[in-house]
Amino acid sequence: MPAKGKHRRPKPSSSLTRGFVAAGTGGAALALPLIGATGAHAVDKGAAPVALPQEAPKAQIPQQRTAPQAQQPQKAAPQTDTRTYSVVSGDSLSKIAADEDVRGGWQKVYSDNEKVVGEDPSLIFPGMKLTLGGKAPAGSGSSASAASDRQASAPVAQQQKTERVERTEQRAEQRAEKRVEKKAESRRTERQQSKSSGFSAPVPSGVSTPYRASGGSWSSGYHTGVDFRASSGTPVKAVGAGTVVSAGWGGAYGNEVVIRHNDGRYSQYAHLSVLNVRSGQGVSGGQQIGYSGSTGNSTGPHLHFEIRTGPGYGSDIDPLGYLRSNGVPL
Q: Which end of the chain has fewer CB atoms within 10 angstroms, the N or the C?
């Protein structure tokens, strides 16, 4: 007969040693382990197991991850061909443009740096900063720094300008010396040619009245020869080898000598004071044939000289051209 009020120890389940009981506490789910009967308080048979109340853990709100901000790519510095050039002694805009391969030449360099250089493109100073490949920054030409550079470089620029002027003057002097030397060489050559050809000037002086000068002093209305300056008694020479065709009085020509040369031309020497040759005589180039004077129709001592195609008046040709063609310097 069973005793009342006695309890029996419930048999533990062999298939379940641990279990989970859900208890609602504050709306949160709590999982608690059920310990086997050997380690737990005894309970009445058939009574539902009750979980011990425990404080439910606070619900953990998952932290939201903030997406990393995309890194903005840094803007690359714009590529440019513009660069700065520092002027050195001996520079010029054309030299800089050539050395630095500036498209547009020195005009481009000056156009881009006009405010820095100023009105004179040939006046640049050592230390001056030029912009190549683009316009110089606005205001750089009028900035205190640029003004200071120009002021500091002014003595150097003045010295360079003085040196350029001196070099220009030296080159001008050298060119003048070369012209004089060339002219002297030409005269020496002509004298040598004259000696080799046997021709010479009739007197060693210049022309006072040119060939073909017009006026009422001549019956033909123009001068048929040239007048050489020659005071009375100046030796007169045959201009080339030939034969004397006449020597004596020639009317308005006064005392004259006419020589036929080997090329068929005739030379006439008028207003002579003394004759040293006679008709039919052979003469050589440079041989003395008389002395100058003022005989005949003459206003003063001089030598009237003609070259003719025939022995008489009116067949005249340019006498100086004839002498020059035979190597006589005049």
A: N
Catalytic site residues? 302
> pLDDT digit string (tens) for 70-111?
555 554 444 446 889 999 988 999 899 999 888 889 999 999
Classify residue 222 by its DSSP letter.
Answer: B
What span, in angstroms and rounded, lies between the C-alpha atoms of 257 and 296? 13
Residue 41, pLDDT score: 47
Q: What is the CA radius of gyration of the chain?
A: 63
Where are the domains positioned within the chain?
Answer: 80-197, 207-325
- Encoded tokens for 3: 């005793």
The fold of 80-197 is Membrane-bound Lytic Murein Transglycosylase D; Chain A (3.10.350)
What is the torsional sign of CA 237, 241, 243, 245? Answer: negative
Q: Residue 305: beta bridge partners?
A: 226, 269
pTM: 0.43
245 CB burial (10 A radius; 0-12, 13-18, 19+):
middle
Q: How many Cβ atoms from other residues are within 10 Å of residue 263's Cβ?
A: 10
- Please tell me the predicted confidence (pLDDT) of residue 314: 80
Residue 259 CA to residue 277 CA, distance in Å, equals: 10
